[in-house]
Write a structure and sequence with these properties.
With 487 residues, the protein is mainly alpha-helical. The chain is built from 19 helices and no strands.
Length: 487
Amino acid sequence: MDIKVQLLLLALVLCGVAVLVRFSAKSALHMIFNADSHSSSSLVEVMRTSLALLLMFVASAVVINIGLQRMFGYGNELTTIYFATYLHAIAGADSWGVMVKALTHLDAFPSESIYDALILKDQTKFQYPPSALLIFDLPHRFFGLSYEAIVDNANIISWLCLPLLGIVFYKLIDKSVVTAWHTTSRLFSETQQQIPVWMRVLALLTGVAAVAMFYPILRSYFLGQVQTFMTLLAGLALLAWQTKRLGAAGVLLSICCSFKPQWIILIPWAFIRRQWHFLITFSISSAIIFLVSVSLYGVENWTDYFSVLSFLSQHGESFYPNQSINGIMHRLLLNGNNLEWLSNTFPPYHPWVYLTTLLTSALLLAVALFWKFLRQPNATDLSIMMLSLTIASPIAWEHHYGIAILLLAIILPLSVVYRPLGQWTVPYMWVMYLLISQNFGYFASSLADTYWNVLQSTLYIGVIMLLWLLYKLSQKQHKHRIANAGR
């Protein structure tokens, strides 16, 4: 790794430790060893303790990465390596390449199905819906940009998405601190305090550092993945929800739905919760995007895409970065390739894999859909639905979990206040953070041909832990809302 990157990361650790010792260590240690609820009785203390924990998490990740490389020679898949790649602005064209290929084919053969041509004939894994092509096709049609220029611009925007995600992280944690403190303000006779400017600056810098050390996001950028855009849009939607701009959240998530049509489940989720502003804007925006794509690419491509979805749900992916129950089952049954990405083949159909995937996906979505549906949903409830939609997918690559770092911004202040797991809250979150934010799965590559290959799925274990914590926090919030209403 470049020595400059090493020095930058070491400086981050030293600065983080200095800040912890000077401003925040006492609050963080108090939370670790004191299981009593609501011990953070002021706005500043909630923010300070949240930042202390986050700085400890990020600093430990940096130390672990540098230690693994220096002591054991690990390198290729470490988050610090991807951070160095980001600094050098080198990105791939994982999404962009297949999109350009699909559009080029449509330009040459407008009446031929792109899915028949690419998946069946050319064996190209083009798995996006037709609506996903609009981000490349519209600039090409209306502004005359070449596909090569659009790819270059897409990578520039992706590069900018990372600092923007750091800003979104800061805004999310700031709003969540206020939400968490509102609970304590009902229990303590304290006057609300303003968070000092230095602490807000620290929160912003810490948010950027947290994103910079988050493997799924860096992996997404490195590959040249549209998922980087989608993560930013999902984060902005969460921020819009926190600030009661439900209509804006609906528009933003409808754009996400144009890349991941399974997010259409947000319509019944909003309907049974009577979130009409969100429901209307999401539905109208999704309908407009769908109709535009139909007018440009025809109905046949959509019907073929639904056939592709059926095929993917039956086969999935066995390659270990597929962090889903489908991938875990394939690997446990030694069904298909585990260690190498194959761009033109899928694992064989296996009835047990398919049945397990179907049942677990249905259970995850059903629980998320009807969880506390009689109450006003908050950002935690929306987070549960968004994370469940990703986990339930048969193919959930590592970079699909970039949204998890933004969910961490929401749950940290809430966990400081509610202590959902008592004195185990901090150790639980620390382990959860490391499993999600770093790539440890490839260390178990020597176990690929054994039943211990489940250790390749550390990211999946981490996101399940995150989902469980979100449910615990949602339950705590609901109980305290009822208790406060009776005061």
